[in-house]
């Protein structure tokens, strides 16, 4: 299966989908506080996505039972919202929103601090954001994905953190997930060569401890194998000749 290259009209529709997803994420982020449940987050995402004329891409995807992923503390990704799971002071929680609008998808996430968090929690959140931005800074026509991953990995390693290797980013457009797979580690000079018009997500999952993960019995929730904290930030970008355009900024 080839990697789609998007032209002008398709890129504009990606912009609108990305803008909607980013707005929903911001709307939810402003409401996060100790005591709310992750099921509340799911309800807010459904409501706000509909208000913007979109649908939640994640709902029903390969059987996923919710409209958003909510990943707390040691949960790396794909956390399922639950009424019984309530945010507590000191938690960190990643909220991953994907919106389908006018036939295209925008995918974005951020990790939020709930109240006063530990120095370690604040550190891994800061490093994850910087890792995402370091990867985006490398994206441009002709660059290989290994170069993007190496830039991410270097930031994490310098800060005493690790990058998850079992999960990565992906191509996006008319399909929520497609080629290429975007690994957030090197080595440089390897992997798919990026071409102007490709749409991909940059979404490194950064652990305070080791990079190994394990899948829980629900078949979705991924946690750090050593129980350490994990944080993630994500943007959808479209590759250009001299860099990239962030669709979800």
TrEMBL record:
Residues 12-240 form the Peptidase M24 domain. GO terms for molecular function: initiator methionyl aminopeptidase activity; metal ion binding; metalloaminopeptidase activity. GO terms for biological process: proteolysis. Keywords: Aminopeptidase, Hydrolase, Metal-binding, Protease. The gene is map. Removes the N-terminal methionine from nascent proteins. The N-terminal methionine is often cleaved when the second residue in the primary sequence is small and uncharged (Met-Ala-, Cys, Gly, Pro, Ser, Thr, or Val). Requires deformylation of the N(alpha)-formylated initiator methionine before it can be hydrolyzed. Its cofactor is Co(2+); Zn(2+); Mn(2+); Fe(2+). Coiled coil: none annotated. Pfam families: Peptidase_M24 (PF00557). Its EC number is 3.4.11.18. This is Methionine aminopeptidase. Monomer. Belongs to the peptidase M24A family. Methionine aminopeptidase type 1 subfamily. Substrate binds at residues 78, 177. Binds 2 divalent metal cations per subunit. Has a high-affinity and a low affinity metal-binding site. The true nature of the physiological cofactor is under debate. The enzyme is active with cobalt, zinc, manganese or divalent iron ions. Most likely, methionine aminopeptidases function as mononuclear Fe(2+)-metalloproteases under physiological conditions, and the catalytically relevant metal-binding site has been assigned to the histidine-containing high-affinity site. A divalent metal cation 1 binds at residues 96, 107, 234. GO terms for cellular component: cytosol. It catalyses: Release of N-terminal amino acids, preferentially methionine, from peptides and arylamides. A divalent metal cation 2 binds at residues 107, 170, 203, 234. It comes from Anaeromyxobacter dehalogenans (strain ATCC BAA-258 / DSM 21875 / 2CP-1).
